[in-house]
Amino acid sequence: MRVHVVSDVHGNAEALSRASEGADALIVLGDLLDFIDYHDHRGGIFGRLFGEDNVSAYATLRRTGTRAEMRAFVQSLWDSLDDPAAAVDEAMREQYARLFSTMAALDVPVYAIPGNVDAPALWPEFASDGVRLVDGDVVEIGGLRFGFVGGAVLPEGATPRANAVWRPHLLTREEFDERVAGLSDIDVLCSHIPPAIPELTYDVVSRTVEIGARSLLERIRAERPRWSLFGHVHQPLTARFRVEYTECRNVGHFQRTAVPYVLRW
Q1: Which residue, 52, 57, 93, 92, is CA-closest to 74?
Q2: What Gene Ontology molecular function terms does this protein carry (predicted)?
């Protein structure tokens, strides 16, 4: 059995159309949307709505500015639009229409979960028989049991802004942990975010520690799956780490690499 696994697609439909070549199935671990493209400031939803110069200015503030400066700048951009929520909704739907039609055209079954840069409430509109939405499910593929949990964890002490134009798909720690606890008797643990292991959560380019999940690490130790597969951290300190019996693997930043991770058994 050969299964290809990708994460952090971020709008790269062209590479996604080739991701299943030679595989029996394709697993997509989230972040389908290209919201802010830090590699091509003309791309992404931000680039489409506000232009390359404003995305470049935001990227600079993200590196060197304060959180208050970033929020003020972003708010000024939203205020420049007549209906920012409608503009974002339209842009997301356009990307999802392209990405889901790409997955539906593949000649293998596709199993998908959302990342933090996704709007999973829209997914049922675009899913088809060939694209299964498996967040929170345990699915048998080739005789192995795959457990899936999507999204990311809301930072400690943070509260979602009620009137935000765009909300990333973030769960409270309790919500996320409850979903992880429902994945039992699994051979492969699939998530968008990594388990809480420093080597897997540190991004060497942005020099930030992303939030991993302690519950994923605990599930690995309890269930001892063969593999733990995830993405989210685009440039991790290490892409692989072993926890006793389990191979923990960041499957890569697919938008940039265009190369799926290959799982064989």
Answers
A1: 57
A2: hydrolase activity
Higher local confidence (pLDDT), 172 or 160: 172
Residue with the two structure tokens 């943070």: 158
**Helix, strand, coil percent values for the chain (each to nearest 5):** 35, 20, 45
Name the residue among 77, 167, 84, 155 with its Cα closest to residue 122.
167
Instruction: Check residue 21 and give its pLDDT.
Output: 98
* Chain centroid to CA 164: 20
- Amino acid found at 53: D
Q: Identify which has the larger pLDDT, 114 or 161.
A: 114
Specify whether the CB–CB gap between 34 and 11 falls below 8 A. Answer: yes
pLDDT, tens digit, for every residue of 110-157? 999 999 999 999 999 999 889 999 999 999 999 999 999 999 999 988
Residue-range domain boundaries for the chain: 2-33+108-264
pLDDT of residue 67: 85
DSSP code per residue over 82-133: SSHHHHHHHHHHHHHHHHHHHHHTSSS-EEE---SS--GGGHHHH--TTEEE
Measured on CA atoms in the order 62, 64, 66, 70, is the torsion positive or negative? negative
DSSP output for 203-251: ETTTTEE---BHHHHHHHHHH--SEEEE---SSBS-SEEEETTEEEEE-
Statement: the pTM of the whole predicted model exceeds 0.90: yes
- Cα angle, residue 63 at apex, residues 61 and 64 outer, rounded to 5°: 65
CB 204 within 8 A of CB 250: no
DSSP class of residue 172 equals: -
Cα–Cα distance for residue pair 147/145, rounded to 1 Å: 7
pLDDT tens per residue across span 62-73: 888 888 999 899
